[in-house]
Every structure is written in C-alpha cells, then in structure tokens.
Give the backbone structure.
Amino acid sequence: MNDRIEKRIELRVPIARAWRALTDHREFGEWFHVKLEGPFVAGQPSQGRITHPGYEHVRWQAVVQKIEPERLFSFTWHPYGIDPKVDYSKETPTLVEFRLEKTATGTLLILTESGFDKVPAGRRAEAYRMNEGGWTQQMKNIESHVASHP
C-alpha cells in the first residue's frame, strides 16, 4: 500500500477564485460537506460537523498547518476517523496539502494526503481506501462548486 494519495484537477477559474473556495471556511464547508465553527487560522484547530448524508454524527477535526496565499493550504487530521467511540488523538495524523498552480486556462489544484504509514496497522488500509475514494469525489465537488459559484 502507498503511504500517500495524490489527486490533480484543473479548475477553469483564476487562482484567486480557487483559493477562496479552499480557504474560506464557509465555501470549503459547502463543497466538502462540513459545517465549520469558524475561519481557518494557521496553527489553530478547525472543528465542525460533517453534513454528508450518513456521516452527520461525525465531528470534523483538523489542525491548520499552513496558509500561504494562493499557493498552499494544509492541515493535519485523522483519516477516516468516524467512530465516535474511538480516541484518535493518540494517533499520528496525516498531512493534507492543497497546492495551486496557474495554468493557461485556469488553476491546477494538486491535493496530497501523506503519512498513512503512521496510521495504526489495524485501520490503515481502510483509512487509505476510504480517503482515496473520498478525495476523488471531493475533487469533483470543488470543480462543480467553483463552476456554479463564480
């Protein structure tokens, strides 16, 4: 199994628009299906509730790592940490990075999630599989979001 997921998508919008969709907590929440409690701040936790049907019981928890305007937004989290009875805080989180690059027709969004080799062996394969599929869907979600909300 690979220890990282990488997805790429070209968004047919300027970098500034893609950046806003990634880093405005309300917009991020719309396409990611999470209701966040407040803005993203580097070095601070981000919390809220998942709004995706079937996962409404799951609490979103991440720690924002970097916000480098129109270039890099990153956070750490516990991948596929959906069981409310499990304390994931003792696990090493994975790192999620969104990088933006200007293209001739818009913006290349490169998503990377790394660190699956540190996820406990008993849940590593499932966390990887679920996030691999999840990120495929999230790339479609952000593409639709920026196209329908210019």
